[in-house]
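Collaboration report, partner site 2.

Our partner group contributed sequences for two proteins of shared interest, and the home lab folded both. The records are reproduced in the order in which they were received, starting with the first partner submission.
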Amino acid sequence: MIGRYFLALDYPKDEIIPKGIEAIDFLEKEFGSEFVKKKVGVKLNDYSLRKDFARFSTFKERGCEIFADVKIFHGANTGYKIIEEIKKGLPIDYVTVATQLGRKILEEYVQKAKSDNIKIIGFTAHTKIPAEQIREIHNQKAASIIYTLGKIASASGCDAIVLEASMLKNEKIRKLPVKKLIAGIRMNIEERGVQARVTLLRDLQEVKEFVDYVIISSRYVHNWEKLREIICKLE
């Protein structure tokens, strides 16, 4: 069951707050304030969290959890300083860290984050990388590497892993004892943009019982008709 919808606010910095608030207002009107409080969050990218990010606390004031999608690829001694710098000005709830760092380093992140009430989400194989190139990089098929990285994330205590919905057709991946976050959702294949591996909404509907978090692309966040359709089809 999907527990949280993260609105991807991948906009120019001066548009992030107004567009985000408009989307939250729309969702409150359509689905109620309790729905927003329990199931809506916002996703902020690395570039929007480099300076002047304290103002994004306005989303927290609206009851939305904040997902900092910074995809950290440093050892914990260095990388956690990035998290600490952000949380000084912004009460974040989730942060992405690369699962390729391995169990020891991920465990260090998870332990440090616990004291700050932050959940670590294991970033696996980027959805912008075509499946055949994943095999070139890792010498494994995409499903195999995501399963391997998912096992590492689970054993390390990560809250969730990032993947596309098609991977949940694999029973071993479905059964991993870690939450699943689906990225790269598209209403139709023509809207894939720069994404190499997308999740079509109809495919996500088929596996939604195995999904915990969903990222709604910025291309739909400010399109009320499509935003409503996505939520209605997944609830």
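Second partner submission, folded after the first:
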Amino acid sequence: MVLLYGYGLITDDNNTRKLAVKLAEATALASSITLVSKITIGRARPFLDKDIYYTNAFTIKDDYNSFPSEHTTLAFAYSTVMANEVDNVFWKIGWYSLAGLVGYARIYHNQHWFSDVLMGAAIGYFSGEFVSNQNSTEKEETLIKLFPAPNGFALQIIF
């Protein structure tokens, strides 16, 4: 996302910069929802040979942070943002197929239950849709400011 934004900055392509920002926003939203869910629920991963309903709530141990799948969440968030950028059915099928393969791989490698992947896909999809459908201000100019702060310098990007 940083490289994409930098590319848009160098080439003076406002659409590329906006796409990078949408991807960053989708990442922040989807990851926040997923992280809170993982810690709150604490579902055991399949490789632990525990029951699908076994939970260890309010833990940060990776073995008990199966629900929902963050890899799948982010794959669907990115795919949804990208799919909404171009009005072409093959473009959309391609992006969602890639996201689906991520979910399949998580199940195949015994890291997640099917319901973990399904919920991750839902969170990612709706996060991507939310970000894509927000009305952004149609500013054509991006401002970058560097100013002194108490512990060094602060960078402000306004777009």
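Feedback sent to the partner group on the second submission included the following. The mean pLDDT is 89. Helices lie at 2-10, 14-41, 70-83, 89-108, 114-132.
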